[in-house]
Amino acid sequence: MAPPPTTKIIFLTLLLQLCTTTISTTVAANTTNATTGTGGKIPAIFIFGDSLLDTGTNTFLPTGVRADHAPYGENFPRRVPTGRFSNGRLMSDMLASHLGIKYTVPSFLELGLSNEDIVTGVCFASAGSGYDDTTNAAAGIIPVLRQVDYLRMYITRLRSFVGAVQANRNLNDALVVVSSGSNDVTVSFYDSPNRPGLFIGAYHDFLLSRLQTFVQELYGQGLRNMIIFGLPPIGCFPGEISAKFRIDRSCVENENSDSESENQKLVARLAQLQPSLPGTKLVYGDIYTPLYDMVKNPLNYGFEVVDRGCCATGFVETGPFCSISTPVCPNPDKFVFFDAAHPTEATYRHVAQSLQKQALPQFL
Q: Would you call the peptide bond into 330 cis, given omega within 30 degrees of 0 as the criterion?
């Protein structure tokens, strides 16, 4: 049976990636000096998950879930819309920079990746994805569990020029960053008519079982050091506030409580899982606390607007509905959110600083 069109397109993209000599925008951005924080102890970084971490993967996929157009990227180096769902860099870029690895993390599907880009790590995250197959029904995205398939392709290329021994060492010492689950909870539970008899706690357990399978597969490929992000305060995201018709634009606190509940379960699951994976360090990354504090105490961080995004009305627009034809605020640094579902670079900077204090030291 012939492969589906999506598979053919991705295969051609990877073939071009191996052959082209084009200098990519992300590679150009990586010529900027990274802020060295650890003296190079961690040699590479690998990114998995959804749009909170997608540095441009969906740009190379046949999907409408993309951000490779203005005003996205308006504060990125050279004002390039790389596919990041924000006005600038993401948490993953900032963590890589702090570790002295590189200024930005390119997508594995990006054309023109140099051997240096490959050695120091890439992004496999795909916007719109999740652990639940129902979430992944959106055409053209790469489900989280399928992102491991692209990791295998990456390893093949890495071994082709550094050898198996060095490749294995690089994988063992690298840092893995994972963020997923928000799309599952919003798209496949809160906003889905297909789960009327399922309690949120049971759904959390299902997602955690899928996460466990994912972590085990990463371990099987040689990855050992992993930060697993919990859920953000989903009820404070502008799009979710609008979906629940909050006239006063206040957070949907019962959904925030659900996020906290799943995060507590995640901490317990990681502690339970780690002993079964010798040599592995599984660390919970708390993004809920700093994000929630920014929404509740915005002036402490220099923010002025917390209940809508910077793009268009800020109430519902994201992806193709946040475009060059829609208005955008004059100063995104005053907004917690850039669109209805994604934070600004300024917000990500504060979250990254929190992770640098509470998660990264456990690997150094």
A: no
Catalytic option among 24, 51, 86, 126:
51
Band (121; pLDDT cuts 50, 70, 90):
very high
Q: Find, among 220, 211, 91, 92, the residue nearest to 149 by Cα.
A: 220
* pLDDT one-digit tens code per residue, 162-196: 999 999 999 999 999 999 999 999 999 987 777 66
Please give the pLDDT value at position 46.
Answer: 99
DSSP class per residue in 168-196 = HHHHHH-EEEEE--HHHHIIIIIT-TT-T
pLDDT at 31: 38
Contacts of 350 (CB under 8 A, 6+ apart): 290, 294, 301
Determine whether 132 is an active site residue.
Answer: no
Q: Is the pLDDT at 147 greater than 50, yes or no?
A: yes
Catalytic residue among 50, 98, 179, 342: 342
Considering 93, 242, 339, 354, which one is annotated as catalytic? Answer: 339
Could you tell me which of 243, 242, 236 has the C-alpha nearest to residue 258?
236
* DSSP string of 292-307, one letter each residue: HHHHHSGGGGT--EEE
Exposure on the CB side of residue 96, measured as CA atoms within 13 A: 29
Q: Which amino acid is at 314?
A: G
Instruction: Name the token pair of 183.
Output: 């799309």
256, 235 in Cβ contact below 8 A? yes
Q: What is the pTM of this model?
A: 0.90
Active site residue 350: no
Contact status, residue 273 vs residue 217, Cβ threshold 8 Å: no
Task: State the CATH architecture for 24-363.
Answer: 3-Layer(aba) Sandwich (3.40)
Q: Give the model's pLDDT for residue 26.
A: 42
Is residue 98 over pLDDT 90?
Answer: yes
> What is the structure's pLDDT at 245?
87
Take residue 262 and report the two structure tokens written for it.
């799943």
339 counts as catalytic? yes
